[in-house]
Task: structure prediction
Amino acid sequence: MIIQSAEFVASNPAYHTCPPTDKAEYAFIGRSNVGKSSLINALLNRRNLARTSGVPGKTRLINHFMVNNAWYLVDLPGYGYARISKKEREKWEEMIRHYLLKRSNLMCTFVLIDVRIEPKPIDLEFINWFGEKQLPLKIVFTKADKLTRVATERNVAQFKRALSDMWDELPGYFITSAETGEGCEELLKFISAENELYTQWETDRGK
Ligand code: GTP
Ligand code: MG
Result:
């Protein structure tokens, strides 16, 4: 897919004030510092569309970007950020859960995992929650440029083993680097195919 245009649309505190659900939508989520904003910028070929920040846990809103006037990419606040109160964290997690469960045009959520870090309960629990709710997800391993190919494959295999207790058929995954652009084309290709599905559904629904 060629990115012809990409623009910020809006930041919203709740799913029901988000833009109209008339376009296919893809959400990006992961722990703070996993490389979410960097990957979004790499995918869209923009230096600073999604803000990369030195202050973790800053993004607390649902951020919509429109791509090629055809689909939405959504930057969600990271989960598991420790330095906030329990009450605030619960409120934030509820907002994300509501969005993920209720946003009708959400085609797929990409859960980002730093490929250097061993499987953490918070990531596994989050991914398993998708399985429980039968929501579509793909795992996106980030920062692959920081490891050798062998180490990357070893860590991916370890992550798959950690999931295999809960999953009969493991979720699909991409191995990416915002630094080298690895995996970006594959990810965009996947989105492109999903966009076609969405258009097909819309056409069928209109019939
Ligand atoms: P929050 O918005 O704070 O939750 O963080 P984020 O997940 O958006 O992470 P961000 O993109 O801001 O990146 C965090 C740090 O990791 C920055 O210093 C980036 O430069 C670095 N980083 C992100 N992706 C990559 C990558 O693919 N390779 C390398 N080497 N560094 C990366
Ligand atoms: Mg960010």
